[in-house]
Each structure stands twice: as C-alpha cells, then as structure tokens.
Amino acid sequence: MVASRAVLEQLDVVTQALSEAYRKTQCLHEGNPDPNGSFDEIRDYLKWLWERWEEMRSVMRVDLGIESSVDD
Fold first, then answer.
1. Which of 7, 60, 65, 70 pairs as cysteine with 3 (C-beta 3.0–4.6 A)?
2. Contacts of 18 (CB under 8 A, 6+ apart)
C-alpha cells in the first residue's frame, strides 16, 4: 500500500510531535526540564498532540474513502 502525500505529511507531524513529547517527558523525569517543560506544559502539549492524532486519522480515512467510524 502506498500512502498519499497528505497522509505522509500528517504522519510526519505526528511522528515529530511524539518524539518531542517523549524528549520533554524524559527531560522532566531526569530532573532537567526544558524552560517550557513543566508537568502542566507537557500535559497541554499531549492534548495538542492528541488533536494532531485525530486530524491524521481523519486525513487517512478521507484518503481511503471512509467517511467515519463508530469509534469516533
């Protein structure tokens, strides 16, 4: 299966965001948080990431011709 450009772009955004979320979490865990790496800021970032995840799923569904699912 080949992914469309729109799907690949969404995957790149989510992949980079997941990597950044992991990095921020690890820095906090190690006691060396980023300037914007408090627990609350990481929680907010993860909420933002969840929205990107939902957008990615939407783009994938459109690409596959699936309008919606029961799980939405």
1. 7
2. 49
* C-alpha–C-alpha distance, residues 42 and 46, integer Å: 6
Report CA torsion sign: 40, 45, 51, 53: negative
The secondary structure of the chain as a DSSP string is ----HHHHHHHHHHHHHHHHHHHHHHHHHTT---TT-SHHHHHHHHHHHHHHHHHHHHHHHHHHT----TT-
Q: pLDDT digits over 53-67, tens only?
A: 999 999 999 998 887
**Of 66, 62, 50, whose CA–CA distance to 13 is shortest?**
50
Ramachandran sector of residue 65 (left: φ over 0; alpha: ψ -120 to 50; beta: rest): left
